[in-house]
Amino acid sequence: MSRWPLPEPMQLALDQARAGESAGEVPIGAVIVKDGAVIAAAHNAPRGLHDPTAHAEVLAIRQAAAILGSERLDGCDLWVTLEPCAMCAGAIAHARIGRLYYAAPDPKGGAVEHGARVFEHEQSLHKPQVYSGMGEDEAGEMLRAFFRARR
After folding, report:
1. What is the longest distance spanned by two Cα atoms in the chain?
2. Kind of pairing, strands 129-132 and 76-82?
3. Residue 106 has pLDDT above 70, yes or no
4. Is residue 57 flagged as an active site residue?
5. Global confidence as pTM
6. 70-77: which pairs have CB atoms within 8 A and are 24 or more residues apart?
7. Rounded to whole angstroms, how far apart are CA atoms 103 and 13?
8. pLDDT, tens digit, 9 for 90 and up, residues 56-86
9. Catalytic residue among 21, 25, 57, 138
10. Which residues contact 53 (CB under 8 A, 6 or more apart)?
11. Number of neighbours of residue 72 by Cβ within 10 angstroms
């Protein structure tokens, strides 16, 4: 557990991850906040939706875009339990998310501080402010336990 209380959006993202796990999905959750209010929340759902793009971040971005009536999510913050992959980092850049908060790093599949480092490329259309580590212990343990149970 964290030494400090987690911000509410990260707590909600962890709740989404738990809901995904209950549905048999990899436990990753995402929440989008605009002007202090949660406007979208999702968990991974590639298996349930038979859609390889149904990552928590992409589903939350789709919800937020529909709610705001715009493909640009200016002024929005994305809170997610795991470092985004290259696909999700690309979606974050295209959506113009202002701030990205993620809990656990993903040395194998992450693309923010690992792997492709999408936002560091000159070709990246947009670079959000990135904050990592809040909720890392909880998110990391949830993922480790999920995969341990399947081995």
Report:
1. 43
2. unpaired
3. yes
4. yes
5. 0.95
6. 71/95, 72/96, 73/32, 73/34, 73/97, 73/98, 74/98, 75/34, 75/35, 76/32, 76/33, 76/34, 76/39, 77/9, 77/32, 77/33, 77/34, 77/101
7. 9
8. 999 999 999 999 999 999 999 999 999 999 9
9. 57
10. 46, 87
11. 13
